[in-house]
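Quick one, T. Sequence first:
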Amino acid sequence: MKAVRERWGSRLGFVLATTGFSVGLGNIWRFPYLVGENGGGAFLLIYVLLAVLIGIPLFTAEMSLGRRAQATPLAGMRKLAGRSPFRLIGWLGLGAAFLIMAYYQLIMGWIAAYFIRAFQGGYGAGSVQAATESFAAFTGRPGLVLAYTIPVMLLSGFIITRGLRRGIERAARLLMPVLFLFLIGLGIVSLQFEGAWEGVRWYLAPDFSAIGPETWLAALGQAFYSIGVGMMGAFVFGSYLHPRKSDIPGSAATIVALDTLAAVLAGFVMFPALFAFGLEPDQGAGLLFVTMTGLFGRLPAGDVAAAFFFFFVFIAGLTSGLALLEALAASAMDSFGWSRRRSAWAVLAIILLAGVPIALGGGPWAAVRIGGRGLFELADYVSGNLFLTVGGLLISLYVATAWGFERFRAETNQGAGRFRITGAWGPVMRFLVPVAVGLVVLAGLGLLG
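Structure tokens:
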């Protein structure tokens, strides 16, 4: 007898869990940095425009595919696409999710270590240079990194094994309000420093002279990655929706709006404080583990500030990781007929094995290069620039051609509220979205100069 598919307990639980998937580390460091690098407030306007025109339609499409399939990505796309090339959507998405999890869990281990460091008095008077050396020394010890990473993976596994409602949905109901409260609270504190408003002006002031074609591509890429299209989280979460009674368009718009809000608020947390203390914003992990720790060393209560900050970052990372783990574990359940518990722990064990060489790449294997990239950078490049973007392109092409806009519209509008798919979406889904995602693919492959 076929097992009854799990369902969300409420629309709120679904929206919060899927928002947790979208809101992650990219919102915290990458979005604010790109705002300042690409015209300030002008970039912000472009990003919001693209999130609406590209992000919402793509996220809606992936979620609708999941609900229509009522299965996980591999089985679902096999069911929907048959033997056509579009069945690769499931494989590419899960490949991206697996590679992302292999190094994402290591970053979560870094965050856990820096959180614990706050209780050990590790943020006394220091400098950015000292923070840089400390970060390099920590990541250069793979055994220590894994010692912090494994407990985080066990926590994720525990939540996943409790099931959809008692695990992911319950965690999202607790953690997402806490995340936004932390964002708002830390932003208010950051604005109290003398000179903080210089950072606000840097963050929001429009500089249209800095806008060029590369700015549009940067905003489009950020919208694509931040929202989480192509990682199969939306597909799997959508597959748990009732096939006729769930509001996909309204939910997708709400999730994208909350994801954008989180990114904007993150800028108000970091940049006013950085400018107040005369620190330069860096891109990537350096902002979290070097520049911010250099800031904590200058604050009167730096250890307390660090504890709050890294706890907030941990929540953002945990909720995103849960969705990726659920996509992988649920696919194992569908493919092999395993129980949820067995699938979750088996997937986590494989992720840990894949993460070991990536961790070694920060230490003893630092000299190992494949295609000019270290192991960490290689996993990030293949997952983000190949699997994720090509998968997103195939999703947009599937909707525009194989599924067809009118059938997509009829299917997605079942259960929809006031916000519905209208005829105006036609040109967007048929032409604008495939072209835009195609540009992201070309840019990711380095074919656009």
